Task: structure prediction
Amino acid sequence: MSAASSRFERNETRLGYLFAAPWLVGFFGLTLIPVLLSVYYSFCRYDVLRPPMYVGIENYRYLLFEAPNFWKSVWNTSYFTILRVPLVIIGSLLLASLVAKPMRGMGIARTIYYMPSIVSGVALSVIWLWMYSPTHGLINQALAIVGVPGPPWLESPDWSREAIILMGIWSIGGGRMIIFIAGLNSIPRHLYESAELDGAGWWHRMVHITIPQLGGILFLLTIVEIITCFQIFTEAYLMTRGGPENSTLFYNLELYFKAFQDYDMGVASAMAWMLFVATLGITIFLFQTVGKRIYYEGER
Amino acid sequence: MARPQLDHLSTGNIMIPSNGGIQSFLTRLLLVGGAVLTSALFVFVRPPSGAVEGRTNVQLWRVVGADEKEAPSWEWFNESQDDIHVRKIGLPFLEIEQKFLTAAVGGVPPDVFEYFGSVAQWSTRGALMPLDDFMERDGFDREGVFPALWDEMTWNGQTYAVPVGTASEAFYWNKEHFRRAGLDPDRPPQTWKELREYALKLTTRDENGDIEQAGYIPGYWSPFGAPLFLNWAIQKGAVYLGEDGTSVNLTSSAAIDALAWEAELFEELGRDALIRKRGSFGFGSQHGFLSGQLSMIVQKSSFIQEIEKFASDMEYGVSILPVPQGGSPGVTAGPAWIGIPSGAAHAEEAWEYIKFVSSTPAQLRVAQFAADHNLVVFFPANMEAANSPQQQSLPHMDVFIDSMAFARSSTVVPLAHTVFWREYGNAWDRAIRGSQTAEEALGQAEREVQRALNEQLEYNRFYRDYLAKQQHADKAGGGQ
Result:
């Protein structure tokens, strides 16, 4: 290594850091340090205005064994995730297989299906609020035409969670559909052709060719969707505020109430870390179990 | 390892030669100079601050109204003297609390803070400065303000804010609905018993059993609005916080009776049908009362403005709330207040401004402004201004101002304000829906609020010790 080039490298490194400095300052000052501090705060009583008071594992103990809303929010979020993930993944896959074929005008069809996902979560919630109106809402009016008396949806503790899950239909044409289209189009044609020659129908082709071939994509999207579901917030915050009777009190909503209504940052930090550990645990579990059995093309 | 081929590639168009020399020095100088200059731009060049030279510049933060006119008290103040310039910074309602919190923690709070949320949220956490020394020094007259409003301003024996406005609640009814139901349109229900009778009479249903016109919906205010269930319990004489401020009592017979009465009425009117009806209401012209689908409602003074905006031809009346047998009239009133954040740079000047806006002449001017612009969002906290002919010229103002005689603060448990309202709200919801009795629901809420209160009391003791220690350290440091 010559002296000149090592000086150059040092020089280049320094410049590199200089250029990266704004991001580094932001990352360390505004992300990493606060994240690490929140570990400490989760063992404290802390309302931002006053100094933190160390309370040991009290926040965790309270949440796990006493807090009336904690387990309710865990249950609500799990229920939401278990129903919403298959709805959205299967919906997106079916929609993608509808519009994946290279046909005249398909571009327009894809665009139309993609469009709803552009709408912001806030506008979306307001629109669905109207659709779910018990007497004047589009959904109940449509049900009334076929003679079905619609439920009061967001006004009922038995239907409000389902109502928010159903809103997922709105998003099935979004980014997930695009990824599925790409995945579907990369499946070798000859697999389908030989299957057809053997007399395989739509269902068999789907189960034996499409799904195994899409394994990697399905797995990735499922994990991303699970994480997204764990973070459900906007819809419940805007449409129900967790009600009625806490039936839509999702984990992040409860966390938000603790943090930004009660300024109980200790409990909120503890909740955030428990969510992180749960998310990490579930992801690792899925990788260890399902992830190992997935076929990736080019893999030997 | 040397990478001769990549040298020029990796540095791209900057073209730093791999050997040192004057060129490299110049390039470095340019780069570093550029970085310093850019940082300097951020640090030193600021947008015009609106500061006025030759005066002490005081920053006032307050909520900016969506489309309402507001009495510009700060302009009046700036015109009235030559030493202080108050600059108003309007912040949206949804952002103001968090912005204030961030500024307070960052040590750069505004000099004056005007708001209508709970004072206790801030005073109990040391974010506001006690004003007692200023008040005593200048002989501040507390007597001019509605006495009900001072409760919320004080905590631990000290005063943290001065009320400048208030809004109380009253009972509204649709006279046309009364006439159609064969009721005297000029006589609202006087008692709980009458409210029930009227509500049943005014409720009409279609052939499916769905409610077409609801007479009264207990707790309905607006979508997501906190139900006003506190009124009924207050009328019964409920007291939620013990004298020493350490014990919560949500399960007094007064509180249970009031909630049980509401739940019973809700059921009698038809629980499911009422919930469906309520769920179909929205904001603005879709509001239950404003759209003419609801005959009676409890609402704030500002509701008059909404009636004029969305249902200007509605014939309606306003009176005090119906009273239970053996009870006495009672409502909650929320103040608009003004205070000085701890660590404000210009506390003395801020206090001058507070004295000005809370003074009778300024409050009378606010009343005049309200009369000129037909404003009823808040009315003056100053009794003389509230009772002035100008203020009284506004429609139904007398009802709200008379109600101040028996009004109570909506901050019930100062140390656990938000927990109280959320838990109480949930308890109310459970009782109304019949999934718990009033007693069970309130009992559950009481446990949670008490727990939150205990925690806060403990935190408070810790904070007091912390402050004492700090003071001690400061003294020791100062002595050296």
Observations:
- The domain at 56-167+334-408 of chain B is CATH 3.40.190.10 (D-Maltodextrin-Binding Protein; domain 2).
- The first strand of chain B starts at residue 56 and ends at 63.
- Chain B touches chain A through 53 residues (CB under 8 Å).
